[in-house]
Design a protein that fits this description.
The complex is a heterodimer.
Chain A (H helix, E strand, L loop, with lengths): L6 E6 L7 E7 L30 H13 L6 E3 L16 H7 L14 E8 L4 E8 L12 H20 L4 E7 L9 E7 L1
Antiparallel strand pairs in A: 1-6, 2-7, 3-4, 4-5, 5-7
Chain B lengths: L4 H10 L22 H8 L18 H16 L3 E3 L5 H4 L3 E2 L27 E8 L4 E8 L12 H20 L1 E11 L9 E11 L2 E9 L6 E11 L3 E2 L4
Helix pairs in contact in B: 2-5
Classes of the chains: A alpha+beta, B alpha+beta.
Amino acid sequence: MRRACLRVTGRSEGGPGVRRARLRVTEKSGAEGTRRSFSSEEATQKDQALPNPSWSKEIRLLFDQFMKKCEDGTWKRFPSHHSRLPRVYCGSMSTKEELMSQARLFTRSFEEGLGFEYVMFYNEDEKRVVCLFQGGPYLQGGPGFLHGGAMATLIDATLFMNAQLAGGIVMTANLNINFKRAPSSTATSYQEAIP
Amino acid sequence: MRRGFQVAARLGHHRAPPGAPCIPPSLHPVSAFGFSTDTLVTRFCSEKTDKKDYALPNASWCPDMLSMYQEFLEKTKTSSWVKIPSFKSNRDHIQGLKLPLGLAVTSDKNDWRLFTRCIEMEGQGYEYVIFFHPSKKKSVCLFQPGPYLEGPPGFAHGGSLAAMMDETFSKTAYLAGIGLFTLSLNIRFKNLIPVGSLAVLNVEVEKIEDQKIYISCITQSRDQQIVYAKSSGVFLQLQLEEESSQ
């Protein structure tokens, strides 16, 4: 197993503070979004922060370890959906409304196994968020490597969750990333955001 | 001892000719690794390809993006700007070349996609085109985020802009001096980009020094009245090798 160290500093507008993240990379040996229409009858949203057939052994193992930690209530799992609330439009929609009705959270815009496969756990007492992440083939940068921007996206998402826990509604003001090693595009990685 | 990019840098150094003169921290027209910017651009923008170019207008492009695209297309005829093609994978961009030994990742899979071309449906994900000026080592990226890139409701995810910046940096750094891997990325977000609207990324190479390319970007609205973000990045220069013919 290769080890890599990633130091991330982030500052949220909800309050001062520096968030640090450490990254450990393990190697994994190993569809296109369709339009969906939302209506009040089809408001079921699948929680995507759960194992599916595309998950490797490594990420499943880490998931099981953290689910065990959730049994005594010190850690909790963040559920995650591809959109927030169903958007209901009456009558004919303008082009912009039609565009917005198809909106999806960026990190959940991919079919199973093709993009971001991830789950976040948080510990409120320690103010820590841990993200288990497996990149898919649609996140490529250099041939065979994970795109730096895909990594930046997940780092931003993890830090955002941590900042939100601390300070309510927040937005990223500053994101600073020093890359130490390029993970392969299907590697499993472990990110931790701590205050 | 830290490995990773330090090993890659040493690999690159092995290939530098012995006794090579010290390159001043300025924009050198010929990279230390033998390919001039003009050669890289010619090779990169070769018309002899059957690969689909995604950096072309389609029905989802907003009027601002279309008209600015036309403006820059005119500049490609009159003032040395070059439109960079955009394929589904970076493998297609470096056909005939390969990463140095020890860095290349081999695989028989062919379902890989460049992250910023991950969503093929017109208008749903990344719509963008990059224009590059070889002698000034500047780029302009016209970027329109679609609804699948959402973060805050109605606005583009900060990560999607980070990826667009990293991608534009990556192409610019490659053409300016075979900058291949991101060493660092610093982004200061100022305002949110509405989904479906045009953001213009103005990118400039600041200097090339010690096997690193320093590059910066301002992302603004077309009229430059709204600054969406400012960023800077550092890329590692490496030498690509010619693939041996079979």
